[in-house]
């Protein structure tokens, strides 16, 4: 082997290491995304199915790292928060705590709650205390409305979707996510009386609930499942220096979410066509067909790459993220009538 051949081999970048992802996130200043990635890679192998309402082991639940105030500082996230709590919207307005859907959910939640106490619970209900300060249990028992935040609103502070890097710390960590509203405090009143007509005589209860405070929070699953097996979500082109977004890969990802599962769009695996150009602090070539050196090649990363890494290494733990709970006093309390329950009077 001559000197030129030896030099070419040294210049060739090594295979991409998934463990470079947290380093690339940190290089971009994405501290929270790097934290989440490190936790996933360091965790024992664990899969969380989409839309699972299972109560998870504490090892797979993170309740301390994410702050709602930080989340609300990104893009147009706050507009979804404001809409969720707006008391002036019509009852048909979607994703609002005062709408008809939310009211039906509140009736269902409190009917189940009152049944657990044989319909005898009265007074002030502190839901978090009632759940033993367990956020998972609070979410399961008392969450009644939500507002979905799409990726476009997470990165809306960028000039356009693909100008700049097209990503920020929140987008790199959890992408699109959901804001949830749960009952925080309520006043429960129970009227007790007898009915003598028509026979037979009956004991009756009539319960009303006034919700005075709610919690708003983020709950998200840090997992890498795909809607269909034929298409895997595009997560950008990464190396230990950061990320760039392949326009064709991002567009194909959007298309894949809207077309038949039988149609496959997975462009963006060729690191040649990018919009935008690489930011100044990452001013390196990206054409994989050039004679590039280590650190100058950005590799496509998809959900399936995480799953394959987990299979190979027997590590990689999906986990659930709960932000802190923001307790909000409602200017317009929500009153729910649970109706009348009667049973035959026994002498």
How does this model look, in words?
This protein is of the alpha+beta class and 347 residues long. The chain folds into two domains: 47-194 and 212-223 and 318-331, no CATH class; 226-313, no CATH class. Helices cover 29% and strands 26% of the residues. The strands form two sheets. Strands 1, 2, 3, 4, 5, 9 and 10 form a seven-stranded mixed beta sheet that branches. Helix 2 packs antiparallel against helix 3 (31-42). It is elongated and about 85 Å long.
The gist of it:
This protein is of the alpha+beta class. Helices cover 29% and strands 26% of the residues.
List keywords for this structure.
347 residues, alpha+beta, 2 domains, seven-stranded mixed sheet, 12 helices, 10 strands, disordered N terminus
Number of domains: 2
Give a quick account of the main beta sheet: strands, pairing sense, barrel closure. 7 strands, mixed
- Which descriptor suits the 3D outline? elongated
Mean pLDDT across residues: 83
Total strands: 10
Strand share of the residues? 25-35%
Bin the helical content.
Answer: 25-40%
Number of helices: 12
Query: Can you write the helix and strand succession as a string?
Result: HHHEHHHEHHEHHEEEEHEHEE
């Amino acid at each position: 082997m001559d000197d030129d051949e030896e030099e070419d081999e040294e210049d060739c970048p090594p295979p991409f290491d998934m463990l470079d992802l947290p380093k690339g996130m940190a290089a971009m200043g994405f501290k929270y995304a790097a934290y989440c990635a490190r936790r996933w890679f360091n965790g024992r192998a664990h899969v969380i199915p989409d839309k699972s309402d299972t109560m998870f082991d504490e090892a797979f639940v993170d309740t301390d790292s994410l702050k709602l105030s930080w989340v609300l500082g990104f893009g147009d996230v706050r507009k979804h928060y404001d809409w969720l709590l707006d008391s002036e919207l019509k009852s048909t307005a979607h994703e609002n705590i005062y709408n008809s859907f939310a009211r039906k959910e509140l009736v269902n939640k409190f009917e189940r709650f009152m049944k657990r106490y044989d319909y005898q619970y009265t007074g002030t209900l502190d839901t978090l205390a009632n759940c033993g300060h367990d956020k998972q249990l609070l979410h399961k028992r008392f969450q009644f409305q939500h507002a979905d935040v799409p990726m476009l609103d997470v990165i809306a502070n960028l000039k356009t979707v693909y100008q700049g890097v097209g990503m920020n710390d929140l987008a790199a960590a959890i992408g699109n996510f959901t804001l949830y509203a749960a009952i925080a405090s309520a006043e429960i009143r129970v009227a007790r009386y007898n009915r003598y007509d028509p026979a037979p005589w009956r004991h009756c209860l009539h319960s009303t609930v006034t919700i005075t405070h709610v919690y708003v929070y983020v709950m998200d699953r840090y997992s890498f499942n795909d809607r269909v097996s034929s298409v895997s979500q595009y997560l950008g082109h990464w190396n230990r220096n950061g990320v760039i977004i392949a326009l064709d890969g991002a567009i194909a990802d959007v298309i894949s979410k809207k077309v038949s599962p039988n149609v496959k769009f997975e462009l963006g695996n060729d690191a040649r066509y990018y919009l935008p150009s690489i930011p100044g602090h990452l001013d390196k070539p990206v054409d994989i067909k050039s004679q590039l050196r280590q650190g100058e090649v950005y590799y496509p990363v998809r959900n399936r790459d995480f799953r394959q890494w987990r299979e190979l290494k027997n590590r990689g733990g999906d986990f659930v993220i709960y932000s802190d709970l923001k307790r909000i006093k409602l200017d317009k309390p929500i009153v729910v009538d649970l109706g009348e329950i009667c049973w035959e009077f026994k002498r």
